[in-house]
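Hey, resending since the last one bounced:
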Amino acid sequence: MYRYIVEPLYVKSDKDVLAADFYHPQTKEPPAVIVMAHGLAALRQFKLQQYAKAFAQAGYAVMVFDYRYWGGSTGRPREMVLLKHQLNDWRTMIEHVAARKSIDASRIVLWGTGLSGGYVLNLAAELPQIRAVIAQVPFVDGAETAKLYPLQQLPKALKLSSQDYMGAKVGLEAKRLPVVDANSFSFFPGANSQQGYLSIVQPDYYWSGEIPARALLQLIRYRPISMVEQIRCPVLFIAAQYDTVSPIESSRACATQIAPHVQYHEWQMQHFDIYHNKYFDKAIQTQIAFLNQYIGVKP
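The structure tokens again:
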């Protein structure tokens, strides 16, 4: 087990600054680096630190960051979700770590969960320098995810999203939609999703629980599955059999398209179980084994 230090960093991305934590293990040789960010509407403090600590103790450097408009990063309006901007923030952080002399830039790993699991698959298909990818319960097909949305609530949610999108064009204040709500339409509808999402929220950090509704239209149109055939690096893909956010059928189809470069695991859990208890422990063991197999630690 390696000792490590955590360095707070601020990295410029377009006109804004991204807040990050850089975990650096005390190895003699420059370590491989894992770039991490959270899924929809979440901060880096929402359970990502436990993954970063485990990877650093195993000998891997880790860069975990907040998207612009979120957490310690700058940008207004606050708590805005723009998929194009978030993908650009990933590219910014990848460029940043690649330029750091303290790490091995030939061994960059992308790690994502939920929506960011879709991002890392998207980026691995685009960027040839990525050495490996870990995607846990990834969002891979917005069109299929939309089919899980309660049919009686979907028209109202889409109407609000469209109104917010058009209002933004003329400078109107954002119409916001709850991230989770068991009794009304939201980004993650249903009691299971509400309980699961709130289980990862860290109450010491500001989080309103609402984001501009225009993001719903973006999510429905976002389909990383359409790009994954271009991936040529090793991918660890962990899916939840009882996922109510990303349909298990979409995960299976996506993994099939990544083959033969994918290690696919399907566990009997729900979407948010992987952050807790036995499934978190299992995830760490599986992910470190994957990293040691394809990346390795130089003491």
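Residues 210 and 294 are 39 Å apart (CA to CA).

Sorry for the duplicate.
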